Amino acid sequence: MDTRNWTKVTEFLLLGLSSHPEMQPIIFGVILSMYLVAVTGNTMLIIVAYTDPKLQAPMYFLLSQLSFIDILLATIVVPQMLVHTVTGFQAIPFKNCITQLFFFMAIGSMEGHLLAAMAYDRYVAICKPLCYSAIVTRSLCLHITLTSWVVVSLNSLLYSVLVAQLTFCGNQVTHFFCDITPLLRLSCTRPVVNEMLIFTEDAAIVISPFFFILASYIQIGAAIARLHSAAALKKAMSTCSSHILVVLLLYGSVIRMYLRPSSSYNLDQDRQVVIFYTVVTPTLNPMIYSLRNQEVKDALWRLWRKIQYSLTFTLTIPPFCFKEGVVVGVCLSALVAET
């Protein structure tokens, strides 16, 4: 290829989720609705995991971290996409693009590590129930979380540096954010080092948690097969079913997207797959865990009752009952007597 035609790219143009202008209002409405549901649902899970006294087990600490990751993952991508859809301004500076790539890869990889930690939690709870409280502690979960953050951050930094050093033969990215696959396609030369890194590093950082989860559930399956109590079997299945569904949603799309050479990428189809685990999965995760976990459902119901009580209490007290922000005792007694 003639190197005289190579120019330094200072910004990229993100072409969005669809090339059809008439689809933009529909895309905006659907994505905005799902983003608001994802942020609201995951925020409520975080609140109940930290405030409800019955959800102080290590499993719910990990669940709150997963919800936090889902909020970050959607926020890295969706607000920028919505702004580009409304304004029609598609440019993103080169440095901002590389920064977005770094955070997206780090947070996306972190989700797999958290799911692996949750699989270990379920393994100990079912296979070694008598030792659970001694093995799985909040301190252990915190150490696993912090170590995973360091590992995925270093891995993403390596990816980002290598991509930033590529020479690009164009700046039109067939995507709605700066992902690694469309950026590699813009490289003037085949990015052999980057592709080798994707296969080797992904195997170590991204796919190894999947095999750890698989091994954990093989052990769990063997333990469940030995259970003779129908009640114990039902409890074990209900405990694991939510986690298994979330794992399938995440890794099904990730393996479909990244574990193949760049020459086989179909960017028009791939950006539709990516919307699944950047928007759809964060939206579904809180629903999956709240609908299939009775303890979480009860905690959310208790939180809703507290919110209702607080609103009712505030709206029922007349303004003259407040003196310097404090409810006067006579009015409070009258209110209690009425209720």
UniProtKB/TrEMBL annotation:
Membrane topology, as annotated: Multi-pass membrane protein
Name by which UniProt lists this protein: Olfactory receptor
Membrane-traversing stretches: 26-48, 60-78, 98-118, 130-152, 203-224, 236-254, 274-291
Highest taxon of the lineage: Eukaryota
Pfam families, per the entry: 7tm_4
Main location as per UniProt: membrane
InterPro entries: GPCR_Rhodpsn, GPCR_Rhodpsn_7TM, Olfact_rcpt
Keywords, comma-separated and alphabetical: Cell membrane, G-protein coupled receptor, Membrane, Olfaction, Receptor, Sensory transduction, Transducer, Transmembrane, Transmembrane helix
One Gene Ontology molecular-function label: G protein-coupled receptor activity
Entry keyword Membrane: yes
PANTHER family: OLFACTORY RECEPTOR
Family: Belongs to the G-protein coupled receptor 1 family.
